[in-house]
Amino acid sequence: MSALAGRHIVAISDLSNGEIEGIFRLTDRFASALQEGPLSIVRRRRKRGGKTRPGLGTVGRLCANQVLATVFFEPSTRTRLSFESAMNRLGGRVISVADPRTSSAAKGERLADTVRVIASYADAIVLRHPNEGAALLAAESLDEPRLAELGRRVPIINGGDGAHEHPTQTLCDLYTIKKEQGKIDGLNVALCGDLLHARTVHSLAYGLARFGANLKCISPASLRLPEYVKRRLAAEYNCVPEEYESFGDLAAPDTGHVPAPRARGRRRAAKRLMDDEQFLEAVGRFLDALYVTRIQAERFRDPAEAEAARGSYVINLEVLRRIGKRTTILHPLPRVNEVDYSVDLDTRAAYFRQASYGVPIRMALLALLLGRKRIRTTKREAGPAPAAAGAEEWITSFECVNPTCITNNEPALRARMERIGDTGLLRCAYCDQEREAGGVSGGGV
Predict the structure, then answer these.
(1) How many angstroms from the chain centroid is the CA of residue 78?
(2) Cα Rg of the chain, angstroms
């Protein structure tokens, strides 16, 4: 059995593969209850013979008298509303900060102080913040000695911290891929668009690599996966993503990248496409899933650069004509112009199903974090997720080079760095950004 009660979920690495599989099984049960109608989650449903269907009869009361605080310092539709819907459907209640201008943050209050106060009002907190590392700071502010003062654990759930991570969206993404394709291991998944700033992509890349998928990254050279993400993928998951600047490059014979399809038929299909001159702007049929992201204009320092990158890649009917009949198209939403509206009617377009899974996924997560449910991990499932190597001694004599790191925006918060092996680099504990170590000898916290 695995107990998630009271745990903080700051990054997808806070969950083991087995725990993720367990969350998916509980999600299936909640999704089934929701499909039967609103009353199915509060009334007992009986099978033939008079036996009560396990679990469904009490779903609507699982989190009775529990309070969830949704604290969003950036705009949100799906994440905030799906969490609030999930808590309401579990019988709990919600308090919310949906606009930072209406909170004491507008008066200059520190994030750590805000979180400590809200923890006195709620049993769990979902936090979205524009600064990378904000979720980790929030989690630390509720650990010892604050934990003793509260007398209970109040989980922090990262609803997105800047361009860093978005672990609960990754749960939705992985769940959708598994529902659509039947598995994750061995799949060829392309990540397309703004891979530099998209936090959903960063978390998903880690999740896919852990479950054995093959990553193919399609983006302009200036918007590729951050180096720290690629370094971690290689070091922790033995995954080296293939990078391309266009759909055509993905299967063009002169790129040096040869697709590795799992079946002879796939190899023949890929070869035919590579020989097709009209394939210059198409997606290879050897892709099992295509994850598209918008240009994250709010993360660009220069609006002109964001505008120049907009429309770099568009999934339209012409692309649909050339991809596989079972290629799943995903998007974390909102979309701008990177997926044409004509694609919506195609059965391969899974992004609205993907969004709908947000409620049962987050129902499962809340029920587990609040101690209302436990999950059983099976022997076939992987053990704990690989944890980042702990630093022998934190180095605090350097500032983080990332201007949007929480350490550069929260008063009195010092950056903590750890050495990355023998690379001569230091990694920020809050935002994962790297910098040169220089000749520093280190300094304890």
Answers:
(1) 13
(2) 22
- Catalytic option among 78, 93, 110, 179: 78
Strand 425-428 to strand 417-419: parallel, antiparallel, or no bridges (unpaired)? antiparallel
The single-letter code of the amino acid at 301 is R
In the residue annotation, 202 being an active-site residue is answered as no
**Encoding tokens for residue 231?**
């370094």
Active-site residue, 216 included: no
Domains and CATH numbers, the chain: 12-166+359-369 (3.40.50.1370), 183-356 (3.40.50.1370), 390-445 (2.30.30)
pLDDT in tens, 100-150: 777 777 667 899 999 999 999 999 999 999 999 999 999 999 987 777 778
Cis geometry, peptide bond prior to residue 167 (ω within 30 degrees of 0): no
Name residue 299's amino acid: R
Spatial separation of the C-alpha atoms in residues 348 and 180, rounded to whole Å: 9
One of 89, 128, 285, 331 is an active-site residue; which one?
Answer: 128
Please give the structure tokens belonging to residue 310. 């907009």
Mean pLDDT taken over the chain: 82
Cα separation, 359 vs 87, in Å, equals: 9
Cβ-contact 332, 169 below 8 angstroms: yes
Give, in order, the Cα–Cα distances in Å from 306 to each of 193, 220, 294, 295, 299: 12, 12, 11, 7, 9
Marked catalytic residue, from 7, 8, 70, 79:
79
Asked about 58 being catalytic, the answer comes back as no
